[in-house]
């Protein structure tokens, strides 16, 4: 009963915020409600003189799940997905350096450098073993991490990940290569609407003031995001040579209508991975964790439950043979 009353108070406060607060405060209030619903708390840690922001929730003694966001995003993109995990898993969703509330270091933002920054973050939190999941650019980083630090990984989930040469060129890459125009970079408010159309089959319907605020924020951050994208291109690390080094159970999860990174990427990756599962969500775009969070989280939970059982059985067998 106390939890129900608290929930009503929080929701009423959030509803009031939509009427009286600035769009920035509305967004903050909304995220606060969603954090509470997901059982997550915002924390920070300083790693190599760099402040790293992250969400943390779920039972402390449970297996850890580390979630890594994509390009132009931040840890909040995992809120609705993570809500399905925190009852049974210790969940961490990180703001990569250069994104969200984390610091913006001098130097490169290429995936190799970010993978090492992620390793330093994991070490600072004392995580010895984990389920690792990444979306888009975050999937590229997660795959590199799993190849470099296999002893830390119980399972790997790559959700519409970058880093491979797909048999079919996506509309995004066709436009980028033919016109040099990157729809992920927002230089005007109308381009923000176009970005949503690129990312989703059914773009979210946002309140007008909040929509305008998010568009203006994207425009204001465009130069920084452009710099990051240039680093990703200039110091590109293909995953094809790395994937055979990954021995942990791996999930490839994609939306069948992804216009950014074509679903045919799975055809490239599947033969290179030793223990692979595939889930393709019908009628979904580039961001299943946002467009279909409950469905994608259910598929992910099934996968990591099986991976945990497989690991436990392997350890038991190894102990018996000693």
From TrEMBL:
Signal peptide: 1-19
Gene Ontology molecular function, alphabetical: catalytic activity
Pfam families documented for this protein: Abhydrolase_1
InterPro entries in UniProt: AB_hydrolase_1, AB_hydrolase_fold, AB_hydrolase_sf, Epox_hydrolase-like
GO cellular component term of the entry, any: membrane
The keyword Cell cycle appears for this protein: no
Keyword Signal assigned: yes
PANTHER family linked: HYDROLASE, PUTATIVE (AFU_ORTHOLOGUE AFUA_2G14860)-RELATED, MONOACYLGLYCEROL LIPASE
Keywords, ordered alphabetically: Signal
Gene3D superfamilies: alpha/beta hydrolase
Domain AB hydrolase-1: 64-293
Name of this chain's protein: Pimeloyl-ACP methyl ester carboxylesterase
């Amino acid at each position: 009963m106390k939890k129900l009353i608290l929930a009503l108070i929080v929701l009423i406060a959030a509803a009031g915020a939509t009427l009286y607060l600035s769009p920035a405060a509305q967004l903050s209030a909304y995220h606060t409600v969603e954090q509470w619903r997901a059982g997550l708390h915002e924390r920070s840690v300083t790693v190599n003189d760099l402040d790293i922001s992250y969400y943390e929730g779920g039972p402390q003694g449970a297996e850890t799940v580390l979630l890594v966001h994509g390009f132009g995003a931040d840890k909040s993109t995992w809120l609705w997905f993570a809500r399905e995990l925190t009852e049974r898993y210790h969940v961490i969703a990180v703001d990569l350096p250069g994104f969200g509330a984390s610091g913006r270091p001098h130097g490169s933002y290429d995936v190799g450098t970010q993978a090492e920054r992620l390793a330093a973050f994991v070490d600072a939190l004392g995580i010895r073993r984990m389920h690792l999941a990444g979306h888009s650019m975050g999937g590229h980083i997660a795959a590199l991490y799993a190849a470099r630090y296999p002893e830390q990984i119980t399972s790997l989930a790559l959700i519409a990940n970058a880093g491979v040469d797909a048999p079919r060129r996506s509309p995004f890459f066709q436009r980028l290569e033919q016109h040099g125009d990157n729809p992920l970079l927002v230089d005007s408010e109308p381009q923000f609407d176009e970005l949503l159309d690129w990312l989703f089959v059914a773009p979210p319907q946002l309140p007008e003031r909040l929509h305008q605020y998010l568009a203006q924020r994207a425009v204001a951050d465009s130069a920084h995001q452009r710099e990051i994208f240039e680093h990703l291109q200039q110091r590109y690390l293909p995953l094809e040579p790395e994937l055979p080094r990954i021995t942990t159970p791996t999930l490839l999860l994609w939306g069948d209508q992804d216009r950014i990174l074509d679903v045919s990427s799975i055809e490239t990756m599947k033969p290179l991975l030793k223990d692979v599962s595939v889930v393709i969500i019908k009628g979904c775009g580039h961001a299943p964790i946002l467009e279909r969070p409950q469905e994608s989280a259910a598929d992910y939970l099934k996968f990591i439950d099986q991976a945990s059982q497989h690991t436990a059985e392997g350890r038991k067998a190894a102990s018996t043979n000693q």
